[in-house]
Amino acid sequence: MDMDFKQLAVAIRAIAEEKNLPEDLVSEVVEQALAAAWRKDYGEREQEVRVTMNLNTGKVTAFVTKEVAEEVIDPHVQVSLENAEKLDKKAKVGDPVEVTQPIESFGRVAAQTAKQVILQRLREAEREIVLSEFEDKIGDIVNGTVSRVEGRLVRVELGRAQGIMPLGEQINGEHYHPGQRLKFHLKDVEKGFRGPQLIVSRGSKEFVQQLFSAEVPEMENNAVEIKSVAREAGVRSKIAVTSNVPGVDPVGTFVGGHGTRINAVRDEIGSQEMIDIVVWDEDVETFIANAMKPANVSKVKLGKDGKAIVIVPEDQLSIAIGKAGQNVRLAGKLTGYELDIESASGKSPKETDKPVAKEATDQPVESKPVVQKLKKKSELEDSLLKAIEEHGTDDSEQTVADSEKKEGITS
Fold it and tell me: How far is CA 55 from CA 11, 17, 51, 59, 176, in A?
């Protein structure tokens, strides 16, 4: 199968127009591929050659660099002085000269290789151009459609471009399927092994911030602004806001009438994710107290090296800490401080959070013989022992007797 250069030229021009690629870029790609094909059919792998192609006529010409020699041993890389002087009158032995060689066709293998390289390079060129357009959109919200879910990786169509959403950029608990239309935060354009690729996110704190930017027009004229965001995607977000206009309530502005604005954001990220909007304050102690919402804070003590102690009423300890430490952890991220929680009574969270059963282990002295007696009955269930230790001796002796009778235990 020889290569029809005229047909190739027509096909290349059609691709360039369809993909909106610059003609000089297309020409460069084609000429590089044809040079590789020429080496395969006519030259050597490392031989220096450039190839030009007229996209209007399909004419292909090779310009092969050869060394001028008195005696030609290898015609692939050498040219006689006599022939070299026809090309350049000043040529002398040892000089490199370009020898023109028209090309009528390539062999089957070289032709197939050239076509594959051309199509591949044109696709890469298109991708580079499209991605360069997205570089100006880094940090913005983009609309996309899930194209494939490959294990923990989600591939997304973004118009002419493709993006990927790694596991770490996804919302915890959110499920994705092909054809699903969603909004994404364009996080970055990374240079990978196969070229640049778009990294998109729904789990980033910037995603929430940009969603609020779209819902709160007052941010455009800087009447209100977001100072910081802390997020655990799919669970909870904390947002610190402030007003730059006297009389404007920043929290109310972001929540919106009847919660319309905050609910619009939650509709996008999932209603399971709670959003705390708190007032930012230039006074760090006040800001930390605000960040601990919904817990009420009695006092904040600033320490060294970015640490602070937050003192709360005893009945606010569990709220201040939050489930698995989530509230204090997010408050720390929001303020940039490492926060320790203490109750106003002076007890640490560990002391206050002890189960009631463990706190009730200091029983009256008269209960101890009963406990000792039970410990000698190896067959007695641990749960019974625990119950007696917790509830004292009021009915302990009777309980022991009943249990021994039931279990057949004797002293």
Answer: 10, 13, 13, 8, 45
Residue 211 counted as domain residue: no
Q: What is the pLDDT of residue 350?
A: 56
Predicted pLDDT of residue 347: 63
Residues lower than pLDDT 70 in the chain: 1-3, 43, 45, 192-196, 347-411
The overall pTM is greater than 0.90: no
Q: What is the pLDDT of residues 215-251, one digit of tens each?
A: 999 999 999 999 999 999 999 999 999 999 999 999 9
Cα separation, 263 vs 268, in Å, equals 9
Q: What distance in Å separates the CA atoms of residue 286 and residue 280, rounded to the nearest whole number?
A: 8
* CATH code of the domain in which 82 resides: 3.30.1480.10
We report the CATH number of the domain holding residue 166 as 2.40.50.140
Rounded CA gap, 247 and 227, in Å? 18
Confidence (pLDDT) at 3: 62
Domain count, the chain: 5
Gap between the Cα atoms of 331 and 292, Å rounded: 6
Q: Which pLDDT does position 2 carry in this prediction?
A: 54
Residue 318 token pair: 């569990």
Residue entry with tokens 């020699």: 69
Q: For 354-396, how does the pLDDT look when each residue is reduced to its tens digit (9 = 90+)?
A: 333 333 333 333 333 333 333 443 444 444 444 444 444 444 4
CA distances from 26 to 23, 52, 124 (A): 5, 12, 11
Q: Are 38 and 51 in contact (CB under 8 A)?
A: yes
- Token digits of residue 373: 């007696």
Report CA-CA distances (Å) from 165 to 33, 116, 154, 205, 319: 34, 30, 5, 15, 34
Burial class (CB in 10 A: 0-12, 13-18, 19+), 218: middle
Write down the pLDDT at residue 251: 98
For residue 190, the enclosing domain spans: 138-203
Q: Is residue 382 part of a domain?
A: yes
**How many residues comprise the chain?**
411
DSSP letters spanning 193-204? TTEEEEEEESSS
